[in-house]
Amino acid sequence: MSTAPVALRRTLRSLEQLLGGFGTALLALGVLTWSLTLGWFTSRSTLGLVRGLADRERARLGRWGAEVVPPTVRPDRLREALRDPATRAELHWLARHAVAGSVVGFLAVLAPLSAVRDLTFPLWWWTLPDGWASPSLGLWVVQTWSGVPVVVALGLAWAALTAWGAPLAARRQLRVARRLLGEAPGDLTLRVAELTRTRAAALDAHAAELRRIERSLHDGAQNRIVAATVMIGAARRSLAGAPDRTEHLLGQAQDAAELALAELRAVVRSILPPVLADRGLEGALHGLAAASPVPCTTEVDVGVRCAAAVEATIYFVVAEALTNVARHSGAGRVDVVVRRRADDNVETVVRDDGKGGAHEGDGTGLAGIRQRVEAMDGRWSLSSPAGGPTELRVEVPCGS
Ligand SMILES: Nc1ncnc2c1ncn2[C@@H]1O[C@H](COP(=O)(O)OP(=O)(O)O)[C@@H](O)[C@H]1O
Ligand SMILES: [Mg+2]
């Protein structure tokens, strides 16, 4: 008894959904036609139209289930937008919904109206003038009562199509739209895994950096200071008897203390090079280039100041790359290019015309570069075929 009203309610609900979808589908058809023709010339506002419509559809989906959250990052430029997965999914939805949504929406109007019209046909067909009475779609003309049962049967078919097809079509439409306009869970999972990995790399890099500082303090400054205290102790003991020896020992102690000071300075500089604060990234890189034994050109075009850690990373990357060029490459020249790109990443390229064959596993320098860069959530690549040239490319978010 109760299944009929339930089925009716479900059908009506689905029809309501499909009619709402019909509305956005017609808009999508308009936007699609515009995008494929004149919209190319005003790509920015066309993108805005697509997004506006997608957001409207998200709101509609939200009324029929869980809220659909729009993407947080939306690139403005056409080229980046076309590479952005969320925008591509929106365009995919637009094309699909413009076609399928219109067809299904049209059927959602036609089928129930035809069902009502054909089922009630016996009640009114005889009132029409001769030759005017025909079933839905005007398929044929009914002249006598013998033709009426066929029309009623057609009405039943329309009703069956509505009751069976509408819920199916509505469910499918919602599912596809949710998949294309909702956030892509796959991408987020990958992103979380990537961030977890780089976070671990950041901690590793941090620990390695602490070890390096500890080692240089231990092997350098600490040893010199120990030597200085030993010599001062000896000098004290010899104070009474041998003034010449005391003088000599104190001189040595002073030398050791000065060396310790110089080494401390070097360690401090290696933690966050003060030249970065004094002269900015561009000045600091020019300084590195000027000190390079292999002739080095620099082209720095960053515009803003990036986060201190990012500038330090770029500085250390270039410093290590130039040291490698000088030590291993046999190159005649090396070019350093640092540029801020439209996506706010800073790209650093160090290219030499040397013999190539650089390989990460063969030392600690390149591995250190990779760790530093990954810790900044950046990317790096090294191309160094045997015979050269060698190109190190590093990309880190500016974080200005
Ligand atoms: N620009 C380069 N040209 C040729 N070979 C290179 C270059 N950079 C690095 N290499 C090679 O790759 C190896 C690894 O470099 P790196 O990790 O910096 O270690 P290290 O400099 O401590 O030897 C080097 O030992 C060297 O053989
Ligand atoms: Mg090296």
At a glance:
About 65% of the residues lie in helices and about 10% in strands. By secondary structure, the chain is α+β, with helices and mostly antiparallel strands. A five-stranded mixed beta sheet has the order 1-2-3-5-4, covered by helices on one side.
Share of β-strand residues: 5-15%
Fraction of helical residues: 55-70%
Instruction: Kindly name the structural category.
Output: alpha+beta
> How would you write the strand order of the largest sheet?
1-2-3-5-4
Taking all residues together, what is the mean pLDDT?
87
N-to-C SSE string, H for helix and E for strand: HHHHHHHHHEHEEHEE
Estimated radius of gyration: 38 Å
How many domains make up the 3D coordinates? 3
Gap between N and C termini, in Å?
Answer: 68 Å
Describe the oligomeric state of these chains in a short phrase: single chain
Bound molecules: adenosine-5'-diphosphate, magnesium ion
The number of E-state strands comes to 5
Report the uncertain regions. Answer: none
Shape: rod-shaped
Major pleated sheet: 5 strands, mixed
The total count of helices amounts to 11
Walk me through the structure.
With 400 residues, the chain is of the alpha+beta class. The protein has 3 domains: 3-183, no CATH class; 203-271; 274-397, Histidine kinase-like ATPase, C-terminal domain (Heat Shock Protein 90, 2-Layer Sandwich). The protein is built from 11 helices and 5 strands. The chain has helices at 3-36, 43-63, 78-83, 85-119, 121-124, 148-181, 185-237, 243-271, 274-291, 308-329, 365-375, and strands at residues 296-301, 334-340, 345-352, 379-383, 390-397. It has a 5-stranded mixed sheet, with helices on one face. Helix 1 (3-36) crosses helix 6, helix 2 packs across helix 6 (148-181) and helix 10 packs antiparallel against helix 11. The mean pLDDT is 87. The structure holds adenosine-5'-diphosphate and magnesium ion. Residues 324-325, 327-329, 352, 354-359, 362-367, 390 line the site of adenosine-5'-diphosphate (ADP).
